[in-house]
Write a structure and sequence with these properties.
0% strand; mainly alpha; 2 domains; single chain
Length: 410
């Protein structure tokens, strides 16, 4: 059966195949790079880079400004999107760079000061990529976009491993990330210039893009805060070894979702914005791509973990199986949010955050209380909390999308 109807399946399926292949290659190279760097660098080097994670995540969420998604949905002036994003990214970088001495003093690590300057510059480079990335996505150039992303990943792999081999330490991580993002920007700019038209399907005023985008920024910041609050809670309550097992379990459970969800999302957003393919059909495709991989991971998780990471890591498998229950709902939240975005209702996405984040934080607080009352098995309780939070996210996203669909009569 043709999932999309008529001849619409071909470009959509090609886009999903290209994006899926990209994700598999990028994840594979990232895994191999992590193994190699783990042998060439010290744990202290990885710790220094991780200490900046919260600041860089927040800065990147703000620097994107939501205009990438707005451009995919509405079109508009790509040059103004580029100029605005670079300006906002530069302003955020200036604040972060000025805060570098405070960050270094807070952690008691003087090396964080110059490290913040280099890794923070990557935010400006990433902000510069938004317009070109969005234009290729809107034009349906998924093969070009995937090739650029894979090439940038190869560049980061070669640069990072080479610098680590030469003894650069944590600077291998910092410079590899920055230079790979600059490489991506150059490639996106060259590819975007070859497009026949600046925008397909109509133009939108820049004010409309800003009005749409700031709500996505607020939603993204709320997501970063929730994710980091969860990680900080785990880190405060349990020993480093247990935290390591939880982090690995979370990473294992997320791997299939990253490939499947992004493969669908990249195609579904511009497709639904133009009325090509229904949310239900995209959701079915998303589930068919994700659920079998999750099933294999849950059933053979111990064997896979022991083979890839070694017996020392098999303790993460029970946590991974619980977290996978939450990931099971991700096709619902993934496609529902893309549908809402495609219909131009970023205000409803922000409303969804207003509804779900308090519930998720309440669940986290309850999990912390149960974990502190009985430390044995506390990690498993917090895994159940995380899975429940994912289910809440899917329920809220689906209810908003369904109400919007009924209102639109589609």
């Amino acid at each position: 059966m043709n999932v999309f109807g008529e001849n619409r399946a071909k470009p959509a399926m090609r886009g999903m195949v290209w994006t899926g292949a990209e994700k598999v290659l990028v994840q594979g190279m990232g895994f191999v790079q992590g193994v190699i760097l783990a042998r060439l660098l010290r744990p202290h080097d990885f710790g220094l880079a991780a200490m900046l994670g919260l600041f860089l995540s927040l800065g990147s969420a703000l620097a994107e400004t939501g205009l990438g998604t707005a451009y995919v949905v509405y079109g508009g002036d790509a040059r103004r999107v580029f100029a605005w994003n670079v300006g906002v990214g530069a302003a955020i970088y200036a604040v972060l760079a000025a805060s570098a001495p405070w960050i270094a003093g807070f952690y008691g690590e003087p090396a964080l000061k110059p490290l913040t300057w280099i890794m923070g510059a990557g935010m400006v480079a990433w902000a510069a990529c938004v317009a070109g990335n969005a234009r290729l996505q809107r034009e349906g150039r998924f093969a070009v976009l995937s090739c650029i992303n894979v090439a940038a990943c190869v560049f980061a792999f070669v640069t990072g491993v080479s610098l680590a081999w030469l003894g650069w330490g944590v600077w291998a991580i910092a410079w590899a990330g920055l230079l790979a993002t600059v490489f991506r920007f150059v490639a996106l700019s060259l590819a975007a210039r070859r497009l026949a038209a600046p925008c397909a399907g109509g133009e939108a005023g820049f004010g409309r893009l800003l009005s749409y985008g700031w709500k996505l920024v607020a939603s993204g910041v709320a997501g970063v805060v929730y994710t980091n609050a969860f990680q900080l809670t785990i880190g405060r309550l349990f020993a480093p070894a247990s935290v390591g097992l939880f982090t690995r379990a979370q990473r294992w459970a997320a791997l299939p979702a990253e490939a499947a969800n992004e493969s669908v999302a990249r195609v579904a957003l511009p497709g639904m914005a133009r009325g090509k393919g229904s949310a239900r059909r995209y959701m079915v495709l998303n589930a068919l791509m994700l659920w079998p991989a999750l099933a294999v991971l849950c059933v053979f998780g111990r064997e896979i973990t022991a083979f890839v990471l070694g017996e020392a890591w098999v303790g993460c498998v029970p946590y991974m199986r619980i977290l996978a229950l939450g990931v099971f709902f991700s096709p619902v939240s993934n496609v529902s949010m893309r549908y809402t975005s495609a219909k131009g209702r970023s205000d409803l996405i922000l409303l969804g955050d207003v509804v779900k984040r308090p519930v998720q934080f309440a669940l986290l607080a309850a999990g912390v209380w149960f974990a502190s009352e009985s430390p044995a098995g506390g990690i498993e309780r917090l895994c159940w909390v995380k899975a429940a939070g994912d289910a809440v996210e899917a329920a809220v996203a689906a209810s908003i999308a369904l109400r919007l669909r009924r209102r639109n009569g589609a």
